[in-house]
Design goal:
Layout lengths: L4 H10 L14 E9 L2 E8 L6 H6 L8 H18 L15 H12 L5 E3 L2 E3 L3
Antiparallel strand pairs: 1-2, 3-4
């Protein structure tokens, strides 16, 4: 198989830090081959089978809500996988999308007129 960045990344990750907890939550390329299609040749990957999605798992829960213990365990697993894939993982590079209109409006207000973070006499210190 020729150069394929997905395969290269998978092979690199598979060769690193074999004792990392998050490794168990990453899909691996087990094998690969070329597949001839209408528009040329494509790389095909045989990957570690997946389990159920979090959405399906959530639908099986009472009232479609995870209990606290279960939610904490799931988050630990997800963060372990993220940390395995990106060892410089911290709150400064965990980004999320704001989809709630109130949250978006509040975020815009904070950018335009930041709320006071600390007062030092008559001086207000803002968090950067």
């Amino acid at each position: 198989m020729g150069y394929n960045p997905e395969l290269e990344v998978s092979e690199y990750l598979e060769s690193t830090n074999t004792r990392h907890r998050g490794r168990a939550y990453v899909r691996w390329v087990e094998d690969s081959f070329k597949l001839q299609g209408h528009y040329g040749e494509y790389d095909a990957f045989i990957m570690t089978p997946l389990g159920i999605s979090l959405r399906t798992h959530l639908q099986w829960q009472q009232h479609h809500v995870f209990n606290r213990h279960h939610a904490v365990g799931l988050l630990e697993d997800v963060l372990s996988a993220l940390f395995f894939l990106h060892e410089d993982l911290h709150t400064g590079n965990l980004l999320y999308t704001l989809t709630d209109k109130f949250a978006i409006s509040h975020a815009e207000e904070e950018v335009n007129e930041p709320s006071a973070r600390k007062r030092d006499g008559d001086h207000i210190v803002y968090m950067s």
